[in-house]
Amino acid sequence: MSRGVVILGATGSVGRSALEVMAAQSEPPALEALTAYRDVERLAQLARAHRPRVAVIADPACGPALTAALSGTGIEIAAGMDALADVAGGTGSDTVLSAIVGAAGLLPTLAAVHAGKRVLIANKEPLVMAGGIVMAAARASGAEILPVDSEHNAIFQCLPTGYRCGQPPEGVERLILTASGGPFRSWSRAEMAAATPAQAVAHPNWEMGAKISVDSATMMNKGLEVIEAHWLFATAAEHIDIVVHPQSIVHSLVVYRDGSLLAQMGAPDMRIPIANALGHPERLPSGAATLDLIRAGSLQFEPADAERFPCLRLARAAIDGTDAAPTVLNAANEVAVEAFLSGRLAFDGIAAVIEATLEGAGRLAVRDSANLDAVIGLDGWARAFATERIAGAKYTA
Ligand SMILES: NC(=O)c1ccc[n+]([C@@H]2O[C@H](COP(=O)([O-])OP(=O)(O)OC[C@H]3O[C@@H](n4cnc5c(N)ncnc54)[C@H](OP(=O)(O)O)[C@@H]3O)[C@@H](O)[C@H]2O)c1
Question: Which candidate among 24, 132, 139, 359 keeps its CA 20 to 30 Å from the CA of 116?
Fold first, then answer.
């Protein structure tokens, strides 16, 4: 285990699971920092229970409330996005769990990578929008990237011992990402068009934050994961397949040159990949139940349907398109999902807004995403474009 850990996004679903895993160890690692966006109450409650050295709230307006909530505890308080990057890149830790949702995690994650830490990545959006930049920074600093997303952690576990992310894996022909199919796996497009936010976030197998739950319902989550796998495992997207597996027991597979398929299996419980990444290369107890194969019964595998789930097609087109396209895809998706969750956009409007934003970027020949400033500029452009499309009420529920 590590000397000191920072949890970016501690109040979220992944962050809280990580705290449970750490608390279950006989010798828990020191906690350097816990961070949140605006949820002062939950951050204060977690900080009182787990005693980090610092608690950081990203929204500066929430700083005074956090100071009041933690008064007398001796826990240092910091506020603002810069403070997140400071703790992520600071000397008080050697391990950073990147578990913020969305593009907001990019700069703190990069700060940890630049500082050469062990960076446990659950926050897939920075890899989608700027994977080349993140992986190049890791190569330059010597940072070790460890995947936490369950599919990518499964692939990591099936790769040869000693494998380090960012290198093409030896003897591997293909990677297969499994997908549960989400809550609308068997719904028609017409049924999905009228889906409500409550139906979309009701995932059949996993308990997750709202954004990734909607991404699972549109299957954009799997599209984002193809791009994430492309960067983590230095593998061309055409060698990364998606297979629908409704039971979420086989978490992903590696296909070797000799015809062997290696799969990682387990209960659908994020504590397993979190414990794997935290302890790597040692195996830590995770607190999750061990899978009972007899009770699990039969396992199904089906092809993914890009007709009913157009986000799969859009993500594939983005990774095959210009370098800029995944950045645009990610930003438009974040804006569209937020609009859907707040009742301003119909479910089928999510894919429509993303497609229109990608087309808009194509018309403008927007293609520069070679450096961080360009990525941030492009992300802002795509957000403004998608927001305008939604406000135009063209896709309103
Ligand atoms: N949940 C899963 O099972 C799972 C599995 C695989 C991968 N992932 C990935 O892991 C990431 C986190 O997912 P999640 O489900 O844990 O999300 P979540 O439950 O929504 O938690 C998000 C966390 O990020 C913080 N946050 C949100 N916006 C922020 C901002 N602008 N600046 C700083 N912090 C911000 C939140 O703070 P507040 O609480 O204060 O808002 C919270 O701590 C996502 O990228 C997701 O795709 C999740």
Answer: 24
